[in-house]
Design brief:
The complex is a heterodimer of chains A (about 180) and B (about 240). Chain A is mainly alpha-helical. Helices cover about 70% and strands about 0% of the residues of chain A. Chain A is built from eight helices and one strand, in the order ααααβαααα. With about 240 residues, chain B is an alpha+beta fold. In chain B, the strands form two sheets. In chain B, strands 4-5-6-7-14-13-10-9 form an eight-stranded antiparallel sheet, sandwiched between helices. Chain B has a five-stranded mixed sheet with strand order 2-3-8-11-12. Chain B is elongated. Chain B starts with a helix and ends with a helix. The chains are: A mainly alpha (about 180), B alpha+beta (about 240). Strand 1 of chain A pairs antiparallel with strand 1 of chain B.
Chain lengths: ~180, ~240
Amino acid sequence: MVGRPLNESELVARARRGDLDAFEELVREHQGMAFRTAYVITGSAADAEEAAQDAFVKAHRALGRFREGEPLRPWLLAIVANEARNRRRSAARRARFELNLAEERPSRDAAPSPEAALLAREQRARLLAAIDTLGEEQRQVVACRHLLGLSERETAAALGWRPGTVKSRLSRALARLEEQL
Amino acid sequence: MSELLETRLADLAAHVELPPAPDLAARVRARVEAEPPRRAWRLRPAFAVPLALLALSVGGVAAVPSARSAVLRWLGIEGVRIERVPKAPAPPPASSPPALDLGRRTTLTRGTLVPRALGRPDAVYADGDRVTLLYRPRRGLPESEHSGAGALLSQFPGRTNQLYVSKQAGPGTKVEPVRVGGEPGFWLGGVAHSVLYEDPSGAIRESRARLAGPTLVWRHGDRTLRLEADVSKSRALAIARTIR
């Protein structure tokens, strides 16, 4: 295609008219966040993959009910989260999502000294361990807001809570992290 | 949250590893393509009826929504325009609640429609062709937090090109087509919508917008009626059916 790429609302408008290329582009744009959110809910990569895939198929069917002009992501995440929660409920064993530290990649910035890098890694590991001591709901809300970078509204949609609940659980979780560190 | 914790969480977010996200686009597309074809979306079923009706009855009340406005959909009956807006209208600042702009105080005249279910109004107002009956709160007519009245019933000539009332309904407001005595109407329930009255010069003034609770608008012969009261849809319809 020539010209500037279509923005999201243009893609949505096209997808609503049955343009599958436009819909595919929306899937590409949001699949990463959809999968990660489903993973935080189900704790299983396989379940999260299925949940995200089913959610996009359902979102396509429901596009007519999406209100143009609203942001797409919270709407999508609500569908994803619903699929993910259904899988979690039917899972024989409730898995807890795992957070691991990535392998250090050589940084393009001025490389810190090996000591400083080690220190930073230890600090991260300690914070991660502190997050892992939280109850599941607090862990989920910290992960959604601070690790996935979802907005409060998106977090509420993803976890199926009211925004006020997101706020209060998050502040309790952060207070506990402060205490532990 | 302390700044330190915030910094550390942001740093952690950049270094935490989740299972790699799979590429779903091709698989989703294949599944969507395999779905049985369906009617084009465009309109929710609830809107399909009023739009058909609109084509028959609305005349020149309003043209196509302008592309520059955020208006998503609109529908209406004579003298009333209902617009779908993406966000619920914000309440006016508490410091300056808009006055109920009903016109000058007058008395009941012949030809003014009165619902038998409510009886004689406590006050009557007129603003140009628009007449409004005011009912004070009483049993079965709770005080509206938006108008302060128990019920407001406005009536104005239908079948004209003049716009008397413009309503903006956000996503939380339900707009349902209804029939009142065989005539078309709409019920606006759920979250409050905003209502603007046109002033006699013909201009819609934003500054006169106020929020309105549950409202029934419908056509009655050659007139358009609007009943605003904090009652259920069935009660509003019951009141509307006693109008004569």
